[in-house]
Amino acid sequence: MSIDHDSLVPVEDAAAHPVPNPGLEQHVPRYTDDDSAAAKRAYRQVVALFGLVPLLAIAFVVAYFAVPQDLWVPILGTVWPLNTLLLGLTGGLAVLLVGLGAVHWARQLMSDHEVVEERHSAASDAATRAAFVEKLNAGIADAGVSRRGMILGSLGGALGILAVPAIVSLADMGPWPTADLRAETIEKTLWTEGVVLCNDVNERPLRPEDLEIGQLVNGEPENLFDLEGAEYLRAKAKSAIVIVRMDPNTIKIPESRRDWHVGGILAYSKICTHVGCPISLWEQQTHHLLCPCHQSTFDLGNSGVVVFGPAARSLPQLPLKVNAEGYLVAQSDFTVPVGPSFFERDSRNDYKDGDR
Predict the structure, then answer these.
(1) How far apart, in Å, are the Cα atoms of 118 and each of 18, 167, 288?
(2) CA-CA distance, 112 to 165, in Å (whole number)?
(3) Which of 75, 151, 152, 203 is 20 to 30 Å from 304 by CA-CA measure?
(4) 114 with 27: CB under 8 angstroms?
């Protein structure tokens, strides 16, 4: 089989391709090719489009910090959050102007000639790669960068300044988790000295005589029920407890926690220390509490230590006492953070089996 290298079509298959190669249509010059004034005008337009981007990026940052997030404005019969609206307009317009400038540059100022390349094998030889580099350099020259240097500079500035709004937006991920901030937020619950333990179902304060040996009650702090909405849900997620009553003669109470129980009544965090699932699967005979998510098992008769499963630390215990009215109350907040472990927290105070 012979090959016509001019058309790259096998001679034997020529009859199967009766339509001749139409070739390139006659080139029609753009008005910016024939009119130098139009070319200069398009050049100024591209620079202006890129030049507006830094201004919009600065406006984005100003709106982010200066406009309150709770400020709303009426627009088209409804109300809009002004902060979000301004961030969307400034950020969106900045990206749009970069795109419009690039398109306008390509359509009006870059080289405007058509080329035809025949299909070739996927593998490129050294000569082809050298030719590619030569064409790349020619394309750079055709882009007019050397003659219109402000375009490349303004494009670089526009793309570079867009990193500023993106970096500023990272602040929405939350404040830096310093030790002091953690102590006042995720490591703190509603439990303080004198807060009454309440039944989670009927919100009634609990007395020691309300619990029988072997019984488990889901509890919450009395001050939780003064909260509403998201604040209520956040506080409940950290303050939920289980209250159990066991025979004091059948449980191990370390010396350091000798006064943390009331007649065998103990309270522990309801939140698993593995990934934070709520726990309430209670086995009376073994004093074990099972997490339904990943089967971590805690021995409530031995200060909440882990006896099985992936949890890495004991269940936090809440110190209890009885107030003057006869109700069960907390002596303090939990002595260690509740819930899943996180790498910043100090684990030295976690209870381990055998601690006194």
Answers:
(1) 18, 46, 76
(2) 36
(3) 203
(4) yes
Chain mean pLDDT for the chain: 87
B/e letters for 218-237, b = 16+ CB within 10 Å, e = fewer, are: ebbbbebeeeeeeeeeebbe
Three-state DSSP state, 225:
helix
* 121-129: average pLDDT: 77
- Cβ burial of 246 (10 Å; 0-12, 13-18, 19+) is buried
CB atoms within 10 A of CB 305: 21
pLDDT of residue 354: 75
- How would you label 326-342 residue by residue, b for 16+ Cβ within 10 Å and e otherwise? ebbbbbebbbbbbbbbe
Cα distance between residue 164 and residue 95, in whole Å: 13
Q: How far apart are the first and last CA of the chain?
A: 93
Residue whose C-alpha is closest to residue 209's, from 257, 253, 260, 262: 262
Q: What is the per-residue pLDDT for 322?
A: 95
Q: Is 121 helix (H, G, I), strand (E, B) or coil?
A: coil
**pLDDT (average), residues 302-319:** 93
Quote the tokens at residue 7: 């058309």
The letter for the amino acid at 305 is V
User: In the numeric block, which tokens belong to residue 43?
Assistant: 């050049």
Give the Cα separation of 8 and 169 in Å (integer): 55
pLDDT digits (tens, 9 = 90+) for 268-304: 999 999 999 999 899 988 999 999 999 999 999 999 9
Per residue in 159-170, pLDDT (tens digit) is 889 888 888 888
